[in-house]
Amino acid sequence: MDLLVTLLPFIAIFAVMYFLMIRPAQKRQKQINEMQAGLQKGDEVVTIGGLTGVVESFDANYMYLKVDEGTTLKFERRALHQVTK
Fold first, then answer.
1. Where do transmembrane segments lie in this chain (predicted)?
2. How many domains is the chain partitioned into structurally?
3. 63 and 55 Cβ atoms separated by less than 8 Å
4. N or C: which end of the chain has fewer CB within 10 A?
C-alpha cells in the first residue's frame, strides 16, 4: 500500500506530461510529415526562416524554391514551415 501511495504522484506527473507535452508534439510531427509528403510542384510555401517561394522541383531530401525571377534556392525539405498555395 505504501508503495502505491509513493508511486502515485510519479504516475500522475508522467500522465500530465504525456498529455500536455508529448502528445501535442507527436500530433505536430504527424502534420509536418503529411505536409511534406503532400508537397507538389507549384505550391507556394514558407520556410522556417520566413522565405516564401514557389516549389520548382523536389527530391527525397531537398526542395528547390523559385523566390524571384531567375532566382532558385535549394532547401532541405525539413525547412518547410507552411504550404500557403
1. 6-22
2. 2
3. yes
4. N
- Beta strands 44-47 and 52-58, pairing class: antiparallel
Question: What is the model's pTM?
Answer: 0.70
CA-CA distance, 7 to 13, in Å (whole number)? 10
| Degrees, nearest 5: CA angle 24-28-30 | 115
14 shares its domain with 51: no
- Decide: 79 and 48 in contact? Cβ < 8 Å: yes
DSSP state letter for 54? E
Biggest CA-to-CA distance, the chain = 73
One domain for residues 33 and 65: no
Q: Which three cell numbers mark 12? A: 500522475
The whole-number pLDDT of residue 34 equals 92
